Amino acid sequence: MTDALSPAAGFAPLRTERFTLRALRAEDAPALHRLVNDWEVAKMLARVPFPYPRGLAEEWIASTAVQMEEGSAWHLAITGHEGDREVLVGCVGITREPNGTRAELGYWVGRRFWGHGAASEAAGRMLRWALANLPIERVVASALADNTRSNAVLRRIGFRETGTGMQDFVSRGGAMPVRLFEAGREDMDAPAALPAAAAPEAAATGKRILLVAACALIDADGRVLLARRPEGKPLAGLWEFPGGKMHAEETPEAALIRELHEELGIDVTEACLAPFAFASHGYEAFHLLMPLYLCRRWRGTVTGREGQALAWVRPEKLASYPMPPADVPLVALLRDFL
Ligand SMILES: Nc1nc2c([nH]c(=O)n2[C@H]2C[C@H](O)[C@@H](COP(=O)(O)OP(=O)(O)OP(=O)(O)O)O2)c(=O)[nH]1
């Protein structure tokens, strides 16, 4: 699986309501040093020495650019505004486990910015970005067992506590008890409520039935198009067949013609949509009923119009792309068929 991961210079800043999360710059060093060279901040952080040597700020900032280039970690400045002036509020970072499918989230906020939800806002955004954009399955985090603020932040943004442990804290000169946390895509926001008109109930489960039409576009080389669900949607980061919810009174074909135009900028005709199989899968909040069509002919160039990543995938490689559970049987059928 390949992912277009932006190197430091080209990293598009992540915005939240009040902050911008951007690559660290050499000129952030003085402000970073002022904020982190504070016992109240440093004592909560496992890898930060106290006192914090001034030169280390420059060195660390330079190392974050290298990590971003190689795609191993993203440490970002949390910046806000005071009047017209940009101010450094803290840092938030995500580090991938080498050769693994997990990443670790860490953050700190300068003392004068405490008490305003900055950590939740920045760390929550970083967590969602990571699950939607990196080739990872889970994010882990830890906090000192008695750091009630940080434990609350992690819970608030979607982490579950998985246990306790001991971790070395450079600033304390030894191991300290910590709480361990974990979050996956299933811990992110539940899907939004469905309009009643489009949601009959399945009598046996009491769950609404969600009708979604999906399409496997197949190119001249027999490759299948997958789209990555973008940040902000349920199941963000998983790969899916393009398509979407059927509107009330819409046929599956009409829904697909509309969705493929909106999402991919292509025009398909009903005659080119061949019914292939369907998924029937119970999610926690609804029961998904999803016809899957095959389409080999369309007009226009396939483009991710909603900023979603796209991949043309050989049938034998489909299984290496994490997909929603409903799609797993469809992928097996498609592989056998193509
Ligand atoms: N398009 C698509 N959706 C899938 C697949 N597998 C799967 O479980 N789903 C689920 C995820 C969502 O719960 C639902 C599709 O809803 P969606 O939110 O993407 O639909 P939409 O494009 O109409 O989105 P929106 O306008 O509501 O943002 O179906 C798949 O392969 N393709």
Automatic annotation (TrEMBL):
The keyword DNA-binding does not apply. Residues 207-336 form the Nudix hydrolase domain. Its cofactor is Mg(2+). It comes from the Bacteria. InterPro entries: Acyl_CoA_acyltransferase, GNAT_dom, MutT-like, MutY_C, Nudix_hydrolase, NUDIX_hydrolase-like_dom_sf, NUDIX_hydrolase_CS, NUDIX_hydrolase_dom. Its EC number is 3.6.1.55. It catalyses: 8-oxo-GTP + H2O = 8-oxo-GMP + diphosphate + H(+); 8-oxo-dGTP + H2O = 8-oxo-dGMP + diphosphate + H(+). The keyword Disulfide bond does not apply. Transmembrane segments: none annotated. Keywords: DNA damage, DNA repair, DNA replication, Hydrolase, Magnesium, Metal-binding, Mutator protein. It holds the Pfam family Acetyltransf_3. Residues 19-191 form the N-acetyltransferase domain. PANTHER family: 8-OXO-DGTP DIPHOSPHATASE (PTHR47707), NUDIX HYDROLASE FAMILY PROTEIN (PTHR47707:SF1). Belongs to the Nudix hydrolase family. This is 8-oxo-dGTP diphosphatase. It comes from Plastoroseomonas hellenica.
